[in-house]
Fold:
Amino acid sequence: MIIPVRCFSCGKVIGDLYYKFAEEVQKGRDPKEVLDELGIKRYCCRRMLLSHVELIDEVIKYKV
Amino acid sequence: MNIKKVFEEGNEVKLLITGTNIALINAIRRTAMSEVPVLAIEDLAIHRNDSVLFDEYIGARLGLLPLKTDLKTYKLGDKVKLVLKEKGPKMVLSSDIKCSDPSVEVVNKEVPIVKLRDNEEIFIEMQAEANIGKEHVKWQPALVAYNEMPKLEGKVSEREAKEVIKSCPKKILEFKAGKIIIEKPYECDLCGYCEIASKGKLKLVPSNNSFIFTIETYGGLTNQEILEKSVEVLEAKCKEFESEIKGKIK
Ligand code: SF4
Ligand SMILES: [Zn+2]
Structure:
């Protein structure tokens, strides 16, 4: 739905990095390079960004 | 005991601690992670939430935000009020949270909390509490780890040494004065490839009295504060044990 605040495994805050990451990747850059640049070392945190599907924009069209 | 800083980058510090034992290092690690108080959002009053995310969902997200904590003013159990009031259309970020005490602030300013559409509103009053990691992970101040300092024992010829050095995936081995040494032992992940490449001539031995101690704060407290406080807590526990046991056993 929306990027989790922290990494599920180690607890590092990764929520603030997602939009920077997504923007760079959309430009066609290699995700590995972008993750390294953002200083995300552990693979637990890397998968948080890599595997995230941002769905909030789909859901927001409807009302609760 | 001797402590040397071997690496520092961002929130992370690596220390080389020599002349001690694993029991003490482990005690410090556990106290640092689960007994050092830090602020985190605990209670919420949700006055208005028009967003598509449930109240609980937003509450869980808010609780996980690290808050900058001054340990001199905030002791275990102390509370402070915060408020979040925003109107759409916008992405509500962690920096939109206002605190009644200016010394308390969110560490990561750009964490998305929820997205609001036109005219949707959100109004939440929050109370942050200083508590310990034992209670909930949101009060854990840092990630702490240690490993035994590795050392390569044995002799190889210069030709064999080339092979061994090439085999290391981290490229941290060096050949000096007829011996192979691990140049940056804190980067070694004990994979054992060097041992295999030497065909049994070298042996990777973990030390039992020197350790590489890694501490990575989430930002609420500094690494220095966390370690100092953990030692203080540990000391208080030992003192308590001492006074309790006095005169009880003949
Ligand atoms: S154990 Fe692995 S990382 Fe460590 S020195 Fe040997 S080859 Fe390199
Ligand atoms: Zn992680």
Summary: The mean pLDDT of chain A is 94. Chain A touches chain B at residues 1-6, 10-13, 15-16, 18-19, 39, 56-57, 59-60, 62-64 (CB under 8 Å).
